[in-house]
Amino acid sequence: MTTAENAPTPASAPPPEEVGAMYDQFGEMLAMTLGSSAVHVGMLIPPGRHTPVTDLVGLADHGQDLLTEYLIDTIELAPGARLLDVGCGTGGPAVRLAERSGGRVTGINVSEVQLAECAQRARAAGLTERLRFAYGNAMDLRYPDASFDAAWSIDCFPHLSDRPAALRELHRVLRPGSRLLITEFAQRGSPDPEELAAYQRLWSSREPTALSALLADVEQAGFRTVETWDMTSNIALSGEFMHSVYQDRREAMVARYGEAAVAFVDPLIAPFRSYCRDHMDYHLLLLRKPTA
Question: What pTM was computed for the model?
Answer without folding.
Answer: 0.83
